[in-house]
Amino acid sequence: MALKCVELIESELLEKTPSSTLKRMIEKRIPEIRGYVKRRVSKELGDWLVEIRVVCRNLGQLAIGEASSSRQREEELRIKQKEPECVYEEDIDSDEYESSDDDGFDLTPLYRAYHIHQTLSLEDGFKQYYFDNRELQLKSDSQVSSMTPFLESHQTFFAQIAGFFIVEDRVLRTGGGLISKMEVEFLWDLAVTNMCAVLEDQFSRMQTANHLLLIKDYVSLLGVSLRRYGYTVDPLLEVLSKHRDKYHELLLSDCRKQMAEALSADKFEQMLMKKEYEYSMNVLSFQLQTSDIAPAFPYIAPFSTAVPDCCRIVRSFIEDSVSFMSHGGQLDFYDVVKKYLDRLLGEVLDEALLKLISSSVHVVSQAMQVAANMAVFERACDFFFRHAAQLSGVPLRMAERGRRHFPLTKSQNAAEETLSGLLKKKIDGFMILVENVNWTSDDVPQGGNEYMNEVIIYLETLVSTAQQILPAKVLKRVLRDVIAHISERIVGTLCGDLVKRLSMAAIKGLDMDVQLLDSFTEQLTSLLTEKEANEMKTAFVGIRQMINLLLSSHPEKFLNPVIRERSYHALDNRKVATVSEKLRDPSDSIFGTFGARGSRQNPKNKSLDTLIKRLRDVS
Predict the structure, then answer these.
(1) Which of 164, 383, 394, 597 could be bridged to 334 by S-S, CB 3.0 to 4.6 A?
(2) What pLDDT digit, counting tens, does each position of 604-617 carry?
(3) Assigned domain for 393 exists
(4) The last residue of a domain, from among 211, 240, 269
(5) Percentage of the residues of the chain whose pLDDT score is greater than 90
(6) Are residues 274 and 231 in the same domain?
(7) Does some domain include residue 418?
(8) Using H for helix, E for strand and C for coil, what is the string for 401-441?
(9) Where are the alpha helices (DSSP H) in 283-363?
(10) Could you name the domain of life of the organism this protein comes from (predicted)?
(11) CA–CA dist 274, 543 (Å, integer)
(12) Do both 38 and 82 map to the same domain?
């Protein structure tokens, strides 16, 4: 407009004024007019520079919002297609985001001022003026306010810078040389250096994983937005990658607290689900079901509330880890996610379960529930690694190939050992009744001794209850351990001070006790195959072989290496000698009194004496 005024004035003067007078008038008035034009244009440009800062902020927020929406659409598409092998990266699919020349901001005031300055032969000065002002604006925009927490101001901070460079990209492309590519790159380098410094400083202060994730996500979107315009964002991504260890350490710390709370709230009771949505949320969500057939409701799960609660924490950890690692320029990050998932399971969850077992499990029912939970966690861990692979865009076959052993082995073993230990204590309560056995009786107890009948009743009740909650493989292991303990207790009693002497009737009574154990094992048809039942019997092979030896007509055959390996391999020399001495008749022995020399010695006692003497010589 000011330029048109100058042209109109010149036209009127040329028409109405003689040439000599006109020349003097022009010489006198033109500098004044030029000054007026410069002032008017400078004011318009100043107003535009103020307005463009607000425009830049809105423009940056819009661009980053579009990048976020685009990312969300891609993730939804990936989930819908269920094709983890297809990885959609923002920086790869850049054609969708080509910049438009209609981004809602007006450069007309800037270009008019530039054109007027060109007309007035002030082009170079204007270029420098524009660059200097924009550089000052950028430095001002790059300052972080100490009055507002960065978590609250980071979106505005990064959006302002994003908008700044979207505008400069347009000026570079359409400004007719107003700013050069080298100058834009200088400004970008300045901005990147400052943003990296701000991120380093802010990340070093943060102690909450979610805060790092929020800022990291916004910075990655900033990178996606500006990469479309050709800006190099690698230094920003390197800062994000540099802090992945700190982020995961904070995330692990958060999960440790959450798991401790979840486990401390557990009541060691099977979980009741009354509605289908509860089953979907607590079972199907983590692929814990053992059948594709939906159960009838209300449904009682074999696990307690601690299992789905911990599963939710682990799943959230995986998703947060993938979120931090993805969208940052790194295509292959499954190994990193898996490394931290291994730590979460093998350190955090395993240690939390070990602590729970050692401090809170005091009775059989609690130990049984924890052991049942551990079996369910095995299925859950398979889901965790598949879920991590799918979110990371890794084919499941590759993820399965890289799987390690069950990461909760320590707590699983501790749960089973605790259950076995508590069951053994219960068994020991019944085994006290062994003190009532008449070890020198001449009568064989009918139906076995009292202690063994009580033990069998308890074992039958235990199996009936445990089958409702414990997996068969766990119950088998625990039962075998308990039965082996019974065998060891009986042998220990025979070798201990409680038994001074043994009669053959007492040995036959023990034989009936072992037959009861045999019968109990054989009746576990719903739990054990015939082969497994025979393997279970090896748990009490020690007392079985001891009784067989004592009932044998020729116990000295124990000394034959071939027979011993075949029939008595579980027996210890010292224990055999101790029990044999208690069984023999002192009046009928080669070590007996002189008054017995004329009598004929019982062949079995003679065999026992030979066995005892040889075993003493060996020891």
Answers:
(1) 394
(2) 778 878 888 887 77
(3) yes
(4) 240
(5) 43
(6) no
(7) no
(8) HCCCCCCCHHHHHHHHHHHHHHHHHHHHHHHHHHHHCCCCC
(9) 306-325, 334-343, 350-360
(10) Eukaryota
(11) 49
(12) yes
